Amino acid sequence: MNVKISVIVPAFNVERYIEKTLESLVKQTLEEIEIIVVDDGSTDGTQEILMRYQQAYSDKLRIFTIKNEGVSHARNVGVGHAKGEYVMFVDSDDYIAPNMCELLFHQASKYQDDLVVCNRYDVYDEKIVERECNLLLDHEPLVSHPEEYLNITPFPWDKLYKKDLFLQVGFKEGIRFEDLLAIFLIATKAKSISVVKEPLYYYRRTSVGGFLNSLTEETLDIITAFDTLIATLKKEQLYETYETQLEYMCIRHFCARYQTFFSMKEKGSLSLKCRLIDETQQFLEKQFPNWRENPYIYKCKDENVVRHFKYYQNAKKLKSYVRIRHMIPNWLLKGIKSGLKLCKKATA
């Protein structure tokens, strides 16, 4: 079979979800695909489910079992075994529309696109919400519209990649936020990028306490990811083209980390919060001395960033605010918020 798309699925302890993922893949309307599942050392029932599907779909499903070294390594292993002209990534707790491979491949092959992006659904416990891709590139390189850099989603799974393009970058192993680094580099290398304006990927958002919503030592890898991205673009003489956009991307992602400090579900370490504030703002001061004047800040669609930026841009004020909030028990904070809402209703 002439493989058009290799679908890479990194899997680790996902016995609860993997069947739905595999069902969505084996029933794709595009026949010429291969499904490569890299089992990253699962210790639950994931392996048994994979073996069952491999027996039933041996013509298109290949499984590789490796010791646990993280999702980046698993994805890189999968790409190393890929036979397709294009590659696509699906997380093992997500699923895709039956025609996702067909629509993305048709677009890429018809227009010789290196990168094709689609809309997605965010899947919550109680609802499914469509998220539209805001990217406006129409079979063009990113360099022709640098402002569109801000509309590149930092996810690996809502995209189809020319395999030769992806192999130029790969996923950096040993750090978190490797998706962000890989995707933002690939976007600058693609000679032609386009969008399929249909929601084709179903992304589970049920893990409220997941990595992006919590604070750990690995959260500091966001600095490493952006430092590597900027250094690489400077080396390739692309930095000046995207400098304003890169500056804002750093601000936006750092502010997103600050927002987790105020979650009632995740307190986190006070010392780690202060360290993240200091190190991210030191990075901004060194790399972008005038970062507080970035023109995109007050156009940000995240109202929390705009509303709180007066605190976010001042490390001293932000740390003081964080220390106060850190000392307030969740039950008291919840009561205060409820009281404020009642006062607003009473005075309305």
Q: How would you portray this structure in words?
A:
- This protein has 348 residues and is an alpha/beta fold.
- It has 2 domains: 5-204, Spore Coat Polysaccharide Biosynthesis Protein SpsA, Chain A, CATH 3.90.550; 211-337.
- It contains 12 helices and 9 strands.
- It has helices at residues 18-26, 46-56, 71-80, 100-111, 163-167, 178-189, 221-235, 239-259, 270-287, 303-312, 315-327, 330-347; strands at 5-11, 33-40, 61-66, 86-89, 95-96, 115-123, 128-131, 159-162, 193-204.
- Strands 1, 2, 3, 4, 5, 6, 7, 8 and 9 form a 9-stranded mixed beta sheet that branches.
- Helix 8 packs antiparallel against helix 9 (270-287) and helix 8 crosses helix 10 (303-312).
- It is globular and about 65 Å long.
- The N and C termini lie far apart (67 Å).
- The mean pLDDT is 91.
Summarize the structure.
This protein is 44% helix and 16% strand. The chain is of the alpha/beta class and 348 residues long. It has two domains: 5-204, Alpha-Beta Complex (Spore Coat Polysaccharide Biosynthesis Protein SpsA, Chain A); 211-337.
Features:
single chain; 348 residues; alpha/beta; Spore Coat Polysaccharide Biosynthesis Protein SpsA, Chain A; 9-stranded mixed β-sheet; 9 strands; globular
Task: Please give the structural blueprint.
Layout: E1 5-11, H1 18-26, E2 33-40, H2 46-56, E3 61-66, H3 71-80, E4 86-89, E5 95-96, H4 100-111, E6 115-123, E7 128-131, E8 159-162, H5 163-167, H6 178-189, E9 193-204, H7 221-235, H8 239-259, H9 270-287, H10 303-312, H11 315-327, H12 330-347
Parallel strand pairs: 1-2, 1-4, 2-3, 6-9
Antiparallel strand pairs: 4-8, 5-9, 6-7, 6-8
